[in-house]
Amino acid sequence: MLLSIVVPVYKEEKNIPEYLRRVRPILSGVTEDYEIIFSLDPSPDRTEDVILAERARDDRIKLLKFSRRFGQPMATLAGLEYAGGDAVIVMDVDMQDPPELITEMVAKWREGYDVVLPQRRQRTGEPWIKKLVAKTGYAVINKIAEVRIPPNTGDFRLMTRRVAAEVVKLKESHGFLRGMVAVVGFKQCIIPFDRPARFAGETNYNRFLGSLRIGFNGIFCFSTYALSLSTLLGFIIAGGSFLLMATYLFFKLMGWEILWGNPTLVILISFLGGIQLISVGILGEYIGRIYEEVRSRPKFIVDRAEGFERKQ
Length: 312
Fold this sequence. Notes:
The chain folds into 2 domains: 2-223 and 297-306, Alpha-Beta Complex (Spore Coat Polysaccharide Biosynthesis Protein SpsA, Chain A); 225-295. Helices cover 49% and strands 17% of the residues. Strand 1, helix 1 (16-30) and strand 2 form a beta-alpha-beta unit. Helix 3 crosses helix 6. It has an 8-stranded mixed β-sheet, with helices on both faces. By secondary structure, the protein is α/β, with parallel strands linked by helices.
């Protein structure tokens, strides 16, 4: 039984030695055969050198380096494509995805689950505004998405070989792994855990808001609800304008004085202009993603693959 660990990395030279120190004994306890695949966006620090130095001591450590920075979602998908394991675990290197959970995840896989999802109960070290944004984002996504995405679950998960293969076959270029796994389906279970703070270094996402683009992918790539909402707002405003016109006509026929004034006009024009811009922005989000899909550019380009017999 080969177990593959896919670890997307960028500017993580301080975390890699500690990660390997903690994860190796755990992997050795659950299987005799494993591989650790570091999917590396070219980093300005020594991340690549650290990985290669560790690989020189242990050939179960493998490296995928890309020709340019493609981002964490694409790095993750590349790792899934290159992984050869009967099961694949995707996790971060900063220890916020505790390696100790691997034992329980593998046990659930052996029980017959195809996807094992660690679910965060607490998010230690994160500011309250980021927690609020995450909670709101998951609530919105699950309210409108065509598939259910369990809240407070990141990319940290175990997938069987067949699930990983189906995810890789999907044509979407956004790389929103949580949604893609939900689309694929199969038998899933959840393991609750308390998420610790980063071991070292700074997050590569916004400290307070996280990655808004990844969040927007969850909203716009798995639902057309925003378009429907834009249409609904248009009908509501049109109806309100009709009622306003009827009220104005009634006052005029009754000979009553109508106190509109400049502030009223400014408020009405600003409100309508804001709604129009929001609607155009929603259309732009969908059109932009359509444009990305139509171009059919490679999701990633591998510059260097160390430890792989195929895809060289």
